[in-house]
What we know:
alpha/beta; seven-stranded mixed sheet
Amino acid sequence: MKRFFELYPVKTRRFFEILLPTISWLVITFPLWMSFWHPALVDYFVIGFDVYWFYKSATLAINALRSYVTLSAHLKVDWLGLARQTQGWDKLYHVMIIPEYQEPLSVLADTLENLTNQDFPHEQIIVVLATEKRDSEAIKNANLLKNKFGKFFGHFWITNHPTINDEVAGKSSNMAWAAKEAVKELKKLKIDLENVTVTSSDSDVLLHPKYFSYLTYSFLSDPDRFFHFYQGAIMFYANIWRVPLPGRVLNTMYSIVNLANLSQNSFRLVNFSTYSLSLKTAAEIGFWGVDVIPEDYHIFFKTYFQKGEKVLVKPIFLPILADAAEAHGFWRTMVNQYEQNKRWAWGISDDPWVIKNSLIHSEIPLLDRLWRVFNVLEQHLLWPTNWFILTLGSTIPPLLNPFFAQTVLGHNLARISSTILTVCLIFL
């Protein structure tokens, strides 16, 4: 299998790139073309999908409640006190990389000002403001921010990512450049990478004041810390009262999903948006990818395929506030929200690479590889298809096949589907 992929690298990748959207379109259109030949099969598929949706709704609600209770309790914990009881806490440094491109100065200032509220010793926090050379104002703005906030941290470094051939412009390539520059500076300071965590942060993120204390305790008390990522609850509440009502509803639901994900099976959890890991681990795997758009999923699976089944994401039950999609006016905000969802949807561009590597890396147990791939494909393939099945699936077969509509199954399909989905409202 490995030899086959090496012989045909482009064709095999292109095959999976075509396969994934083909599956989505087959699922979306399945009730249309199958209703003419075998409408009963469509009915069983729709009812089965509704039952699956019931299961997903129930687990989401249960996990959200579990996460909320845990988060409420962890907000009250003295994480700094616990961190001070762990060996080596005073030698641990936290590098926070903030990649940005043409980000408003006020947004970056809010992020840095919030960072000054950390209860962990500030001299052990290193800020890396990762700018892009294609932004002509970047260095000027970065120096303004350094002059204002540099005194609050152990170090404040500015990197300027150049435009490089064969690189994809974006957060991932900027993170890779910034992390490499940070490693150079740390080596000058003779700081061992084993004693350094790196946090990949979005530019508009507000960390909870206890984040680095919690991370310190979790990291140092974790015997497998060089295999693990650490993920907080990304909640789009930083500007929630400035966005229109539909945006508030949507971003509240996104926030609840992110919170619920922290309590799901650890094999299903993948880091997202803002997360931490050992800088030694990042260096060992070759840092973030420079030829991809979504950086979070990619670095997780890059680590997984190099280090094996011990690679997991550990939850940090603290809120990490991020901005909901916002623009001037109602319609511009809705368009901006759509564009944000489209950026998230780019995660599927990594799936062919994930599938290919899961087939190649036979040193990792087969069941573990299959389970990881299934979890990724489940999310990326169901996201664009579920609305069509849930909303239209039960009405199409009787409409397209009048004879089937007169059968018991055809007559009761809409009622059965409606009943299952109505019960799902309980969990909402």
